[in-house]
Design brief:
By secondary structure, the chain is an alpha/beta fold. The chain has 12 helices and 19 strands. Strands 6, 7, 8, 9, 10, 11, 18 and 19 form an 8-stranded mixed β-sheet that branches. Strands 14-13-12-15-16-17 form a 6-stranded parallel β-sheet, with helices on both faces. It has a 3-stranded antiparallel β-sheet with strand order 1-2-3.
Length: 438
Amino acid sequence: MEGSLADAGSLRCLDENFPAIPTASGLSSTIVFQNNDKVMNIDREQISEVVREVLNEEQFSRGLAKKVVIPEKCKAAVLVDKRRMEIREFPVRKIGDDELLLKVEACGICGTDVHCFQKDPFGLIPNVLGHEGTGIVVAKGKHVTLDSVNKPVEIGDHIVTSVMETSEECVIAKYNPLDSNLCDDFSVYGLLPDEPNNHLNGYFGEYMIIRPGSNFYVVNGMNLNLRLLIEPAAVVTHALERAKLTGLINFRSRVVVQGCGPIGLLMIAIVRTFGVNNIIAIDGNPSRLEMAKKLGADYSLNYKDYNGAEELKREVFGLSKGLGAHFGFQTTGVPAAVSNIFKYIRRGGGVCEIGSFVDSGDCSINPHKDFCKKEITLLGSWAYHAWDYPNAYHFLQRAQCIGLPLEELITHRFPLDDIQKAFETNIAQKGIKIVVEL
């Protein structure tokens, strides 16, 4: 297109110095470009506009972040009552020598966030939620030089974090570091109470302060969508590591994943990435079952099409040589579903429960038929520990390499000012992963 900036990506600059100039300041009034046999003149103002557009999404990347003026105040979404968010302004305090200040890019809404939004089960109101986020380092204390896997950390780096270290008094963490998630004082950003001197404790705000002792990871090589999936990916990474302890997960295993919300779908993806070739997905939402097939499920069963768990059991057995699945992952958080999953597992098989992050009530099983007679190996999986994070982002990279469309999990995006609508959309199950962008 002659005389237009639309072809700027295919233009050759005749000014040899131009490629080395990062901004339009200091350029001569006119620069000459040649596109094939056509020559056009572009004035400095036009070049400035192009540069601004190109750099817009990376304005806080390394180099430019050093020039960012950190505001005195910022906006954050505060859960002020059940089912009610309010946008408030808070001061951006000066960070300490062992802290980081993040400019938040975006954060996904987790099922735990929804429980907090609806029922406040942890008694946190008022507080800033959000733990499935990612941000850019815009200030760091002088003692912060390396991330949790010893990568250098600099201004402008993209990082993820969720877990804070437990106290030195915790016996579990002291003697079994890989069980630190079982500590009573296990803390996660976005699930912290509000504090007078620090309101920026969650990702649903423009800025967030990373405190001393926190685990964080530099993930510059991943795009925004994948970075937003790292935290939920850590949940399924931990669950898979737990399941592997049973010896029941291998290339020939038949695996049931019950529940195709974000965690269930990522569970399917990680099991497929690990090499399992027979995966049965169970859910009641057709669109989520369709996504399950995209992410590696061989069979998708809508439980609403069957007359109860016994009929669905016969279908699962029919897909698993008449014996039932070797292993099942229960991800729904629904007590009735917990009762049912034992029916789909063969004798000598195993079950991992990862869906019950809050108390949703009791369930009943037949101890003889469902558990004892089958000699079931039952595992619980609670959140994750610090070392699940590196495994999680390597899983996401590998899954993408084998063609699993993980980024399609993100179906809705809302600005911070519309966070109330974002939560209502999530509750209505109108999408899969709902993201708040800042």
